[in-house]
Amino acid sequence: MDISFLGGPGPQRGVGVVAPFDFALDRELWRWVPDEVSLHLTRTPFVPVEVSLDLARLVSEHQTLGEAVRALIAVSPEVVAYACTSGSFVGGVAGERAMCAAMSVAGGALPAVTTSGALLEALAELRVRRVALVTPYTVSVTRALQEYVAEAGVRVTGCAFMGLTRHIWQVPYRDVVAMARAAVRPGAADALFISCTNLPTYDVIPQLEAELRIPVLSANQVTMWAALRRLGTRAVGPYQALLDEAARQWPVLPEETQEHQEGPS
To answer: How far apart are CA 98 and CA 134, in angstroms?
Structure first.
């Protein structure tokens, strides 16, 4: 069979992704990526430290990130992303900006994003001033995330965490949903953020948005959204408010319609 008429593969736009050595959710990242874009992943060197603030600092040193980005530029990505939440918020807002600058320099002036920087960008896009947080972290790492968000001027209205130091990618969806329900108080938050790029979230986002009636953001989601935005293209994901303005129009529930018709008692 002659298939020469098909020609060769079409040009592919690339996103270079630097992930921590223990990152296990490559497949989840790909689910937000349109067909015309390819991901090129590399990992930081292994260090024998459990998930902690110490690990976050080790995997986000500028030299480590610079070496990873230089390994990626051989395949000519158009943007580089650091897919790690704790590693990009551990130094605060100024630390995150310095991290992006270091990655950009290492990549020859490539645009650079981090998960925590992408979070703040997404909160600004959705005009979120109050956020609830879900994390798989210990109390100290969770507190550092709260401080980072507060430093950016967003109020934390609720938080749930699991206290894990390893194997975060094995957390089932039911546990993520349970934490979300614990973190969000009715009417208190404008959005929910589920932290950690090693925590599976793709399939629970639409479910939680329908139930909680607020945008639900996750670490991998905002990372891919921000990186693809730099390419002038959109992340893909059904029924996710960050990605689709139509999904931000919450339908009126039957009980709300009834209350409106009856008026205040």
So the answer is: 26
> What's the confidence (pLDDT) of residue 250?
72
Instruction: List the CATH number of the domain containing 189.
Output: 3.40.50.12500
Which residues lie across from 217 on neighbouring strands? Answer: 193
Copy the structure tokens of residue 1. Answer: 């069979």
Judge if pTM exceeds 0.70.
yes
User: Does 259 map to a domain?
Assistant: no
Q: Is residue 258 part of a domain?
A: no
Q: Residues 196, 169: contact at Cβ < 8 Å?
A: no
- The answer as to whether 251 is a domain residue is no
37/16 Cα distance (integer angstroms): 11
Task: Answer yes or no: are the C-beta atoms of 32 and 95 closer than 8 Å.
Answer: no
pLDDT of 259 over the 90 cut: no
189 within domain boundaries:
yes
- Tokens coding 64: 């480590």
Domain that holds residue 99: 12-244
Contact 90, 36 (CB under 8 A): no
Alpha carbon separation from 32 to 127, 134, 145, 182, 256 (Å, rounded) = 22, 21, 24, 27, 33
Instruction: Give yes or no for a contact between 177 and 208, defined as CB atoms under 8 angstroms apart.
Output: yes
Average pLDDT over residues 212-219: 97
Domains identified in the chain, total number:
1
